Amino acid sequence: MKSFSQKTKESLCKTAMGRPCCIDAEMMGILIFAGRLKGNTIRVSSESSQIMKRFAVLIKRCCGETTLVKESKSSCFCSISNKKIIDMILKYETGSEKISELFAKDECCKSAFLRGAFLGGGIIVDPNKTYNMEFITSSERIHRDFKELLEEMELDFKSARRKGSFVLYSKSSDTVCDALTHMGAVSAQMQIINLRIERELRSDLNRVSNGEIANMDKVFDAAARQLAAINKIEETMGIRNLPDDLQEVAVARLNNKDLSLDALGKKLSPPLTKSGVNHRLRRIIEIAEKQ
Questions:
Q1: Do 249 and 273 meet the contact criterion of CB atoms below 8 Å apart?
Q2: pLDDT (tens digit, 9 = 90+) per residue, 188-199?
Q3: Please, which residues have CB within 8 angstroms of residue 84's CB and are 6 or more apart in sequence?
Q4: Binned average pLDDT, 10 residues per bin, the chain of 291 residues
Q5: Per-residue exposure over 32-41, b if at least 16 CB sit within 10 Å of its own CB, e if not
Q6: According to CATH, where is 3.10.28.10 located in the chain?
Q7: Are 108 and 15 in contact (CB under 8 A)?
């Protein structure tokens, strides 16, 4: 079964590529995160054939060059030796300009580069388990530059080191949804929003339920004290020796052990308010304590 991350990436592979500048930006996002430069060749690999096919289309539109995608048992890969692309990579690796300055100057290009970075080196955890999106690279410079790009997009990702790799991650559902929106992953974004709404509703229902249970516990505890007092009076002085107003409430409580004070008051003649019933029951408890 495909993971949520794989499904999200495959969905992104079907999105429109946009303007020429955005095509270049997305292509470079994939190259920066999934490419390895050796000599005059860049090897790009991915577990997904759809990502590599989209990458080949990006190369074709950017450079007019057809790229052969090969498949092995565990991954798909291709080799790029186009001079324009090699020069772009070398300019970044040997120069001082940042990702945002070279590949993602405009807002639309930032989103396209983010999409490419996610396709090349990103993962997203199934939101049914937790909220978490990550971008992983072996390069500290790429890690640092990309974090700055994310900050420019007002996306709050934290930094971490993990087994020799540099990781940018966010466990905030808001940040993850915003990142998906920038990429164009509408389906994944809506799934997270729906899950979040469902969780919030469940949480609200649990709070209400817990509150109702607590209130019922209070009602039962109070009724138990009242019944104990009434039974003590019956055993000592007798309920009939209580004043008429207290006698009526005592008999009503004995016959309706689980009712709330408000409901108990409605059974009296004439009916009493909750505070009125509570006042009489307190007097009964005080009399019982003196017996």
A1: no
A2: 888 888 888 887
A3: 62, 63
A4: 88 88 91 86 86 90 81 81 86 86 88 94 90 92 93 94 92 91 88 82 70 68 80 82 84 82 84 86 84 76
A5: bbbbeeeeee
A6: 4-184
A7: no
Per-residue pLDDT tens for 14-67?
888 888 889 999 999 999 998 888 878 888 888 888 998 998 899 888 888 787
Give me the amino acid identity at 22. Answer: C
Q: Which backbone phi and psi does 158 adopt, to 5 degrees?
A: -95, 155
Question: Which tokens hold the place of 123?
Answer: 């993962």
Q: Which CATH number applies to 4-184: 3.10.28.10, 3.30.200.20, 2.40.50.100, 2.60.40.10?
A: 3.10.28.10
Cα separation, 94 vs 86, whole angstroms: 12
Q: Which helix (H) or strand (E) holds 134?
A: strand 133-137
| Six token digits for residue 128 | 């049914």
